[in-house]
Amino acid sequence: MNLKPTLLSLVITSAILSGCNATTDKHATKSPATSAELTTAQGSLIPVASVIPHPSDMSVDITASGRVSTLNSIEVVKVGKNIPYTYSSGRVNNTPGFDWYVSKHFALKSNRPEAQVLLYMELLESSFPHYIELFGMTPPDMENKRMAAVYGSSKKETKIFVTDDNITRGISAGGEAMFYNLVGYSFPSAREQHQRYIVVHEQGHVFQMSLMDYPGWLPTWFTEGTADALAHHYYDPEKKQLKVMVFDRASPMDYVRLGLKQYEALNSPSIEDMTNNPSLYRGINFFIVHFMLDDPDRSHKFKAYRDEMAAKRQSDYGSGKALSHQLMMDIFGDWDKVEAQFVEYVASIDKTFNTAAGPWEQDGNKLWVRVLNNSYEHGSPRMDVRLKPGEKPSYKSFKFDQPVGEMSSLIIKPVRGNDNPTVALTIDYLADHLHRGHAGIGLGLKISDENQQRLTADKKVGTFKQKSYKPDEDELLQIKIVKGNTIVVNASSLGGEDISYSISPQMVADLEAQLKPKLGLSVTINADHLTILLKSKASEYKVNFSISNDVRTKLLDRHMAILAENAEHRLTAFFDDGRDLNPVPRDLTTNLEVNPWANPADRAISRLFRAMWRLGDKVPSELSVMYEYMIDATPKDRKTQLASLAKLNAASASLVTAIVNSGATKEKVNHALEELSGLHLRLEWRQEKANGEQVVSAVLRNQGAAVANANIVLSQEGNNSFTKDLVLASGDKTIQDLTTTLATRTSKKAITAKATVEWQGQLIVLTVTQGARVYPWSSMAIVEDAKVIGKEVLITSEFRGPHAGETKGKIMVQAYPSDIFETSYYEEEITMAPYEIRQFSHKFTVKSGAKAKPNAVDVTFELVIDGEPVLISQRSEIK
After folding, report:
1. Which of 372, 508, 757, 773 has the fewest CB atoms in 10 Å of its CB?
2. pTM for the whole structure
3. Exposed, middle or buried: residue 336 (CB in 10 Å: 0-12, 13-18, 19+)?
4. What is the tens place of the pLDDT at every residue in 390-407?
């Protein structure tokens, strides 16, 4: 995905990437930064701009393939206290000690070091194509707006920077996205993996809210499940490579493990149960989303459900639950069958990794352990690997689903399932800690009887009560490289010997001479001994460790482990895990489609399914047969995928004829043709100008393969009407603008866009109607400046209710100077309904004989908006 046309002179490439007075976002309309306006301080990674670059003048170059993004280059600019134009416009402010940074699609307020700011921007831009795939399209006016994020240095600071944005509490759990102002707030935890996760997760919520107005149109399992699934990631900092929606990975933040525990605790809940359950069960939510999106057929039904729920705009807090389940049954068909498949899906989960003791981190294929003051509460860190040396590898599409690491020349190629299996590990040492801690491989793992009794969930996975689990009680042959100069083999727990070997001085010297020491450890299981081979850049060292036949059998038939302690060396395991057996590997160096199968036909299949769904019980066999064919081709090689797309496009005319002759009503036929065509019409509001004018655009997109002849009309009673005739090629869009004023936006007269399109010999009519203005979320505005009328001061304020839920609180009004009024303070309890817009007026009477003149009035709303405590205040100067 190359989003690179740019005027900025400084490109921060992936090779290079390895600081209060409020300034309102009206400055976002300034001219884009030019090379003359950019300065970079010595030693700084990020250039500074005196004006905010327009999104179109910034670039990001990403290679996206399937669920993987590789960042090639990115532009990030520091804009200081200039607040960028975002979907949070008017509801996000400056904070002392924080600065604003912008990339093409995101605006970040942060006081973190520049390297961290760059990392967050890299992660967000790398996630952007996957947000689009997950939620269906970009938010409106994305060409001009950015999405806002705030990342502070500590939890203590969150109360400060959240309060600056009118929210009267801090945030929890490392991050939170606020639907009041569409901002994703985060602060770092101790876990580096979690620092990345929380950024991707919270901005996933922001993306959804920017697109769909409010997260509560869909059940909790959707809103939280999609964000958690997306952020359950793999990230290689060396390659700048991000994979989202990873199912099976090595990490203590493990939703597979959590999901199995929760699924058992809730007695195998159904999807319907979770739809009706408002509580947050992250693990089960994670399962439901993967169950839906990792299967070709269910993925298209899921997307239809997602879009229809968003269009219905019914909150999950009320009738939305009933609507959600009814839509599921309507779209998926035999719901009992779906629920049965979900039970089978959970039962089939086969997890590769289990953290016996940590704390572990994962960077790409490299694992490492954070050093905790030389003390590990639950024993030496151990990552269990549920693979057996004696078992032949096999490929499963969503098992160990992360990019394959490059083979190292320092190890023997691993192989399992033969007479002499080999497993290996490479150790990237931190040079200063070469002679610290240990790293290695464990073989022949058997959980002790005592630890078995401590298991609390699915027994095959082994979810441990970490406070009571004692990994040192388990049987395990351990091969450890200790302090970079000793091999220690502990086999006594399996009935073998414990022997230590001094690594040759030549190899130790070789490691010490390297700026980035690297060592390969290969272990081969022979008939009566283990061959342990160490290899460095310029040296090899080998020892043979004798084993009995009984020990050999245990090593072949039991699971393995990765071992580390007291050093943050990076460990890459080579266990012949089966990823190289993928029959249809995807090219991660080429831009392919952003769906699990990198299928070029994916969106066309979704359109086909939605057309079928619109026809109800009148679906022609031509459509259902084509759909089954397309689904069958989805997981296959690219040649087959492309052939299926060509077949679908070639059959377009016959499918249209089948729809027209289906016997469905005229309305259903029009709707089905609209879905199949890929035509999409929506209204998008642009930024309000200083004179009160605001443009609303009718945007018609042709997302299908065929040319469309269109007539588009945009109108509002009492305003101008505009019409346009045009030809839309595949992938084209057209925009028709209508300028609104303060008067037309308060008229309550609807705006209507109507497109009449000739497509494949048929006329399709698309109509979108919206209120006289875009609903501006929960917000307050002083309608006009306070006025002095004789001996009275009049103030009028307007408040807009939420999209859903209830708003309660009070309005407080204070006039100044307070001593000249008979009563200078007024307070009123208020309740607001969703979408309600109410004006509040009050008059203050000036005391007789008062010499001073009225000069200001403060209006403050202290509210709980759909559960969110908010304090909003504005001052009106009396001139």
Report:
1. 372
2. 0.92
3. exposed
4. 999 999 888 888 888 889
The pair of three-digit structure tokens given for residue 720, joined into one six-digit string: 């101008």
The encoded tokens of residue 875 equal 């001052």
Hey, is 123 helix, strand or coil? helix
Distance CA 433, CA 567 (A): 7
To the nearest 10 degrees (0 to 180), the angle between helices 638-650 and 621-633 is 160
pLDDT in tens, 689-715: 888 899 999 999 999 999 999 999 999
828 in Cβ contact with 811 (< 8 Å): yes
Spatial CB neighbours of 734, under 8 Å, sequence gap ≥ 6: 699, 700, 710, 712, 724, 726, 728
Give 753-809 as a 3 state SS string.
EEEEEEECCEEEEEEEEECCCCCCCCEEEEEEEEEEECCEEEEEEEEECCCCCCEEE
In Å, what is the CA distance from 870 to each residue of 206, 697, 808? 18, 32, 10
* pLDDT confidence band for 465 (50 / 70 / 90): very low
Position 26 scores a pLDDT of 37
pLDDT tops 50 at residue 461: no
pLDDT for res 403: 87
The H or E element containing residue 525 is strand 518-525
d(CA 366, CA 193): 12
Q: How far apart are CA 325 and CA 330, in angstroms?
A: 9
pLDDT at 13 over 90: no
Q: Is the peptide bond before 359 cis (omega within 30 degrees of 0)?
A: yes
CA 244, 245, 247, 250: dihedral to nearest 10 degrees?
A: 30
Closest listed residue to residue 216, CA positions, set 78, 154, 132, 309: 309
pLDDT band at 450 (very low <50, low <70, confident <90, very high): confident
Whose CA is closest to 566, among 364, 355, 362, 376? 376
Cα–Cα distances in Å, from 797 out to 800, 804, 839, 859?
A: 10, 22, 6, 8
Backbone angles phi and psi of 638, in degrees to 5: -65, -35
